[in-house]
Design a protein that fits this description.
The complex is a heterodimer of chains A (371) and B (406).
Chain A lengths: L4 H18 L2 H7 L8 H9 L19 H14 L5 H15 L2 H13 L4 E4 L15 E4 L5 E11 L6 E8 L2 E8 L5 E5 L9 E14 L5 H37 L1 E2 L2 E2 L4 H29 L5 H27 L10 H14 L3 H11 L3
Parallel strand pairs in A: 1-4
Antiparallel strand pairs in A: 2-3, 3-7, 4-5, 5-7, 6-7, 8-9
Helix pairs in contact in A: 1-4, 4-7, 5-6, 5-7, 7-8, 7-9, 7-10, 8-9, 9-10, 9-11
Chain B lengths: L2 H17 L26 H20 L18 H11 L8 H18 L2 H13 L4 E4 L15 E5 L2 E8 L10 E7 L10 E7 L5 E6 L8 E12 L3 E2 L5 H15 L7 H5 L2 H10 L6 H29 L7 H24 L15 H11 L6 H12 L9
Parallel strand pairs in B: 1-4
Antiparallel strand pairs in B: 2-3, 3-7, 4-5, 5-8, 6-7
Helix pairs in contact in B: 1-3, 4-5, 4-6, 9-10, 10-11, 10-12
The chains are: A alpha+beta (371), B alpha+beta (406).
Chain lengths: 371, 406
């Protein structure tokens, strides 16, 4: 199912209106210092009023079956508003991992709850190195009779890992990296919040001590599954990043138009003007890269993996650049705790490095190009 | 693709099949084979340059006879009356064939001056020049820049003084591409030195064979002479060759400049395609044993991120155009990125080649890149400098206050 241009505009308008009401800066600042780091009432409204958790979940699993283009619109808006909510972890990471696993039984068990907003979920891949490379994973799972498994090891950087009802965990078996589902209440599981550079995105460290787990997809297939998830997730992240970058640009342009120094608006000085133009160039490129990648995914194009890698690299750089220059254009005030610029700076840097960072994603691009 | 587009593409293909051989694919890794020229600007000796122009005219005439000479031009002046999307589609199909490069006619003449004549000339002047341009008989140039008026184009000093039903022009123009081949030039002149500088300018069509017009080649840093200085000494122009109002030439200039920005910034073919082609660049790294160099690999990837994202930007602009909308700031962003992408590619290749680009060993595909390297500084200046493009983006898109101007 694909919305036309009018449909996309309406979707954007309703999500923006919702977020302006439910996630203004004061709400973000309050939530980023509370536990849990989201408001369950707002999450329930996002599900009931806007049906956001089910947006890209196929209709057979209780969702609305839209594609990455529509998801991108929603994530751009969430990126602008720095929404504190389990959307990225649940919808972009965990639900996509279930779908990519090809395990219809697991999908039927978990996705309807996710689509309805009743279940939140998290995807645990990285360990203390932060790497998403399945080859570097040391958590392990052993068979426990009757098709059951027990999981042992430690996971870090797990987004919304202390609050998610369902945990999807990549662990090593004899056959290789494999994906497992673990219940929040499973025995032997403990979760603690990590201190994070970006306080608006909660992360957890999970320890597994012979935790009962269910295999999702084929034993040893998580390498392929994660490659697919990473393509979709990095395009989702790219949309969030381009939304955040656009917001930084708007804030800078507004400030440059209105702030006077030396008897002139600072935006009339070419040095400031060109800084804003450079931000605009990066933002336009970022939007083009993330939206085209989403479109190619929905068309089932063979060009999607390359476009996903381009979007990830392009939007990571654009957001970091816009977040840095936003502080520079604002001058001293941009460096204060009270000003929101640092919230975007933190999100930009954290997002840039979330899946490994430039050294990793640039090599991934070359790999996808066959170089 | 809509049916009429498919029909148009099929018609173009049938025409090209009958008149031109297929082109070799320059983006494919064919390392060490064929022509390795990376010339962005021509660096041909004058005799070869004249032959090149003649081939361009001959091919333009063939295109004209089959209805592909001026696809977006109005029917009454010999054009086809179709959309810019048809034009781009034709270019895409034609790029698969080995035909004469007709930029000398189309980039400035049909791309920029043609639309300006259409918008501002009297009917009999349109009839005199437009069909001739479309047939390849008349090449046009843009007599805008002057030694004292480059980016600040409104500072033109070339004088035009009225004498009865004629005007007398005196002054010097510079950076005039294709002037040496042109039959007609569009000149901006100062007609009222007392008015504010944007309001005292008048535009004229100058027949390049008029007495007093002297074209001198200007050798550029690539070694060739694509540009010229044009000296105007007591050149008499009839008043009906005036475009727009007396002192109203700035409006005329804006028509040309808008079309210029829509022209510059497209991806192009030849050295441009090769310099930004993943296959071509990776073949170069293999040939130079730098394949495993991590720092160079990261730079290659960064370069490709920009090249591919710029392509996405152009795709979006094209899709918007196709849906009947007008492209947003994409064209200015695309123009900026185009210059930067090629500059970055040329320097990346230089670092891969190392000493092999400072002197010619005769080895294929090495010293040839110096041609592109030496052209790149121009790409950040021509068609509006980077600084001017950034001012436009900041002021027109972001609404920042204007530069303080005299």
């Amino acid at each position: 199912m694909t919305a036309d241009e009018t449909g996309l505009r309406e979707l954007r308008a309703s999500v923006r209106e919702f977020l302006e009401a439910k996630s203004p800066e004061e709400a973000v600042r309050k939530l980023m210092e509370s536990e849990p780091r989201y408001d369950p009432a707002v999450w329930a409204q996002a599900a009931d009023q806007l049906r956001l958790p089910g947006l890209v979940i196929p209709e057979e699993y209780g969702g609305d079956g839209f594609g990455l283009v529509e998801l991108g619109v929603v994530l751009e808006e969430m990126g602008r508003a720095l929404l504190c909510a389990p959307f990225f972890a649940t919808v972009v990471l965990a639900a996509q991992a279930l779908l990519a696993s090809g395990d219809r039984e697991a999908c039927a068990r978990h996705l309807p709850g996710i689509a309805a907003g009743r279940t939140t979920a998290a995807l645990a891949v990285a360990e203390d190195s932060g790497s998403w490379d399945p080859a570097l994973i040391s958590a392990r799972a052993v068979p426990d009779g009757e098709g059951a498994w027990r999981l042992t090891g430690r996971k870090s950087f797990v987004i919304d890992g202390t609050t998610a009802d369902l945990l999807l965990v990549v662990a090593r078996t004899v056959a290789g990296p494999s994906l497992f589902a673990v219940d929040r209440d499973a025995s032997g599981l403990s979760a603690g919040p990590m201190e994070t550079l970006d306080a608006t995105r909660a992360m957890a460290r999970l320890t597994f001590d012979a935790v009962p787990a269910t295999l999702v997809g084929a034993d040893g297939a998580a390498g392929r599954t994660m490659a697919k998830v990473l393509d979709v997730a990095s395009v989702g992240l790219a949309a969030e990043q381009s939304g955040g970058a656009r917001r930084c640009l708007e804030a800078s342009a507004e400030h440059a138009r209105t702030r006077h120094q030396f008897g002139r608006p600072i935006g009339s000085f070419q040095a400031v003007k060109h800084k804003c133009a450079d931000m605009l160039v990066q933002v336009e490129l970022a939007e083009a890269a993330s939206r085209e990648a989403a479109r190619l995914a929905d068309e089932g194009s063979a060009e999607f993996p390359v476009a996903a890698a381009v979007a990830h690299a392009c939007c990571s750089r654009a957001y970091m650049f816009a977040a840095m220059e936003n502080i520079q254009v604002h001058g001293g005030i941009g460096f204060t705790w009270e000003h929101p610029a640092h919230l975007y700076f933190r999100r930009a840097k954290s997002s840039q490095l979330l899946f490994g960072g430039p050294a990793v994603y640039l090599e991934r691009l070359l790999d996808r190009l066959g170089i | 693709m809509a049916d009429d587009m498919q029909d148009f593409a099929a018609e173009a293909r049938a025409f090209l099949d009958a008149h031109a051989p297929k082109a070799p694919d320059r983006t494919a890794p064919s390392w060490g084979e064929g022509d390795d020229s990376m010339a962005y600007f021509s660096s041909l000796p004058p005799e070869a340059e004249r032959e090149h122009v003649q081939r361009a005219r001959d091919w333009q005439r063939v295109r004209h006879e089959h209805g592909f000479g001026w696809i977006t031009g109005p029917v009454e002046y010999g054009g086809r009356g179709l959309t810019p999307v048809h034009d781009l589609l034709y270019d895409a199909v034609e790029s698969e064939y080995d035909v004469a490069h007709t930029g000398v006619l189309s980039v400035i003449g049909l791309g920029m001056i043609g639309p300006t004549i259409l918008a501002h000339a009297q009917p009999h002047i349109k009839e005199r020049w437009l069909p001739a341009m479309y047939r390849g008989d008349a090449i046009a140039c843009q007599l805008f820049s002057e030694p004292g008026a480059g980016s600040d184009l409104a500072s033109v000093a070339t004088r035009a003084v009225r004498e009865g039903d004629h005007w007398v022009l005196n002054g010097q123009k510079v950076w005039t591409s294709v002037a040496q081949h042109s039959q007609i030039g569009l000149a901006l002149t100062r007609t009222n030195p007392d008015a504010p500088k944007h309001r005292g300018i008048t535009a004229f069509l100058v027949p390049m064979d008029a007495p007093g017009v002297e074209v001198r080649p200007l050798r550029q840093m690539t070694g060739g002479a694509d540009f010229n200085e044009v000296f105007l000494t007591d050149v008499r122009i009839p008043d009906d060759h005036r475009l727009g109002e007396v002192d109203g030439g700035w409006t005329v200039a804006l028509t040309t400049l808008m079309n210029e920005r829509a022209t510059v910034g497209s991806e192009g073919v030849g050295p441009v395609a090769a310099a930004l082609s993943p296959d071509h660049l990776s073949a170069l790294m293999r040939a130079t044993w730098t394949w495993d160099d991590r720092a160079l690999r990261a730079r290659l990837a960064e370069l490709l991120v920009d090249a591919l994202a710029t392509r996405h930007l152009n795709t979006r602009a094209l899709r918007m155009l196709r849906a009947g909308g007008t492209p947003g700031p994409e064209m200015s962003v695309s123009k900026l990125m185009y210059g930067q992408n090629l500059t970055r590619a040329a320097h990346f290749v230089s670092d891969v080649l190392g000493p092999r680009i400072i002197a010619d060993t005769g080895q294929w595909g090495t010293y040839a890149w110096s041609e592109l390297l030496l052209a790149t500084p121009a790409l950040r200046i021509l068609g509006g400098t980077e600084e001017i493009m950034k001012n436009i983006l900041a002021e027109r898109v972001l609404g920042l206050p204007k530069e303080v101007r005299s």
